[in-house]
Design brief:
The protein has about 290 residues and is α+β, with helices and mostly antiparallel strands. It has 3 domains: about 140 residues, no CATH class; about 60 residues, no CATH class; about 60 residues, no CATH class. Helix content is about 40%, strand content about 20%. A 4-stranded antiparallel beta sheet has the order 5-6-1-9. Strands 4-8-7 form a 3-stranded mixed beta sheet, with helices on one face. A hairpin with a 2-residue loop joins strand 7 and strand 8.
Length: about 290
C-alpha cells in the first residue's frame, strides 16, 4: 500500500480571507471521526465531476500544535511517481463550512486534500511532499481494534477477552468504574490478558474514539504512555527536516542519525514507548 505518514495538510491562521483557530482544527478532527465518508486525495482543486477517481485517501487526521496532520494511504502509483518527480509537492485542503449530514451540522469538516503542482497553496509553511518519506506500511497491530460496546460479541482477540472480564466484574460490582473493573479483572496469568497489556498502543493526539478507549485502558493497567514516543517522533521528524534543509544531499536515514547523535534523550524517549512509528526509524534507533 503506497502511503505517506505525518503530512501537514492545514494550519491555523487567516487564509483566503477566512480565519481558522485551533478550535476550528479540533472541529475538523471531530467531524472526521463522525462523518460517514473518507476525504480523498485529488489532483488540484478541480470540480468534482461524477465518476471522478480518488488518487488516495486520508486517514488518522489529528491536530499537532497549530497544524492538521494526516496520513495518505492507498495512493495510486501514478501519484506516487509524480510526487517522486516533484510534479506535485504541495497540498491544499478543501473544507466544508456548516456541513449538514446525517441530521447533524458540522461547523468545519475536511472534504478532500488537493495535490498541487503549479498552483500556489493558500496555507503557508506546510512541509512539502518531496521532503516526506514514502512507505509500504499498514497500521501497526494492537490488541484493541474496535469499540468494546457489543455484548455477546465473542471475539477471542486479547482486547475483547479483557473487556468481557472487566464487564463481568462491573455486573458483580455496579459501583465500580470501568477503569477499576479493568484493573480488578486483569489477570496476568492468562495469555490473552498478557497479550493485551503488552500490545502496541495507538499514538497521536487525535485517535478515534475506539483508540482513545484502548489508550485509556492500557494506561489503567500501568502501561507505558504511547504519547511520549509519538511526541518524541514529532520532534525528531522536525529536526530531520531542518538537517535536510541544511544538507540537501543527505538521505533521511543520514539525517535521522545526525539528529540522534545531537539529541540522545529523544532517542531514549522514542525507544521507551509502545509500538512502531516507522520501520526505517526503528532500524536506525534500535527500537
Amino acid at each position: 500500500m503506497n502511503a505517506i505518514r505525518n503530512v501537514e495538510i492545514f494550519a491555523a491562521g487567516q487564509w483566503n480571507g477566512d480565519t481558522y483557530t485551533e478550535r476550528d482544527l479540533d472541529d475538523m478532527v471531530s467531524a472526521f471521526r463522525e462523518l460517514d465518508y473518507r476525504p480523498a486525495l485529488k489532483l488540484g482543486h478541480t470540480k468534482d465531476a461524477p465518476g471522478a477517481p480518488a488518487y488516495g485517501w486520508i486517514e488518522n487526521l489529528r491536530r499537532v500544535g497549530r497544524k492538521l496532520v494526516a496520513d495518505f494511504v492507498d495512493m495510486h502509483d501514478s501519484v506516487v511517481n509524480a510526487i517522486r518527480k516533484r510534479a506535485y509537492s504541495r497540498v491544499s485542503s478543501e473544507i466544508y463550512f456548516n456541513l449538514k449530514r446525517g441530521g447533524k451540522t458540522f461547523a468545519r469538516a475536511l472534504k478532500a486534500v488537493a495535490l498541487l503542482g503549479a498552483e500556489v497553496p493558500a496555507v503557508a509553511n506546510l512541509v512539502p511532499l518531496h521532503k516526506m518519506e514514502f512507505a509500504d506500511w499498514t497500521f501497526e497491530a494492537h490488541a484493541y481494534v474496535r469499540p468494546f460496546n457489543v455484548e455477546g460479541d465473542y471475539d477471542d482477540s486479547p482486547g475483547a477477552v479483557v473487556d468481557r472480564a472487566a464487564k463481568r466484574y462491573q455486573r458483580e460490582h455496579p459501583e465500580a468504574t470501568y477503569e477499576q473493573a479493568l484493573k480488578a479483572a486483569f489477570d496476568p496469568s492468562l495469555p490473552q490478558h498478557r497479550a493485551y497489556a503488552a500490545g502496541a498502543s495507538p499514538m497521536g493526539d487525535s485517535e478515534t474514539p475506539e483508540q482513545m478507549d484502548a489508550q485509556r485502558m492500557r494506561a489503567a493497567l500501568g502501561g507505558t504512555d504511547p504519547r511520549e514516543r509519538y511526541d518524541a517522533g514529532v520532534v525528531i521528524h522536525k529536526l530531520m527536516i531542518a538537517e535536510m534543509d541544511d544538507h540537501p544531499t543527505i538521505t533521511q536515514s543520514e539525517a535521522l542519525k545526525r539528529v540522534l547523535l545531537k539529541y540522545p534523550v529523544l532517542a531514549e524517549k522514542y525507544r521507551a514507548g509502545h509500538g512502531g512509528v516507522s520501520a526505517n526509524w526503528d532500524a536506525v534507533i534500535g527500537a
